[in-house]
Write a structure and sequence with these properties.
Blueprint (H helix, E strand, L loop, with lengths): L1 H18 L12 H19 L4 H15 L13 H16 L4 H18 L7 H6 L2
């Protein structure tokens, strides 16, 4: 089944590229629900780190997964619908390994940075990585 999904994703990516459907997407406004889910992801990343998953292994897998979902239209993706979303999540995941703290601390820092973007709407203050780094 997993192989079928990978094949489907590859076919969708090729089809989108060949049909010219690839286009620039306006900035995605995050919701508070997406922020909570992203915070859970970051908490689980820190828990994985605590259980021995290496930085390289986690980030490589995350990048692979993010690249794979790019084949789907933005409105069908979880959280990472545009480059700003991806940098916010990736930056927080890097901090999990580069500046280790308790999983709940990483979760709350991500949630705070993410919710700041919800209230900012389309006029996001600063860069996504600086918002995450400020925590």
């Amino acid at each position: 089944m997993k192989r079928m999904i990978v094949n489907l994703v590859q076919c969708l990516a090729i089809g989108a590229a060949l049909s010219g459907m690839v286009r620039v997407v306006p900035a995605h406004e995050l919701t508070s629900s997406e922020c909570r889910e992203g915070g859970d992801f970051i908490k689980h990343a820190a828990m994985s780190r605590d259980y021995g998953v290496s930085r390289e292994m986690f980030l490589d897998r995350m990048q692979s997964d993010l690249a794979m979902i790019q084949a789907f239209p933005p409105h069908l993706r979880w959280f990472v619908q545009d480059p700003d979303d991806e940098e916010l999540l990736s930056g927080a995941a890097r901090l999990v390994f580069d500046a280790p703290r308790a999983p709940e601390s990483h979760q709350s820092a991500f949630l705070e940075a993410c919710l700041a973007r919800v209230s900012d709407g389309p006029e996001r203050a600063g860069t996504p990585s600086s918002a995450a780094d400020a925590q």
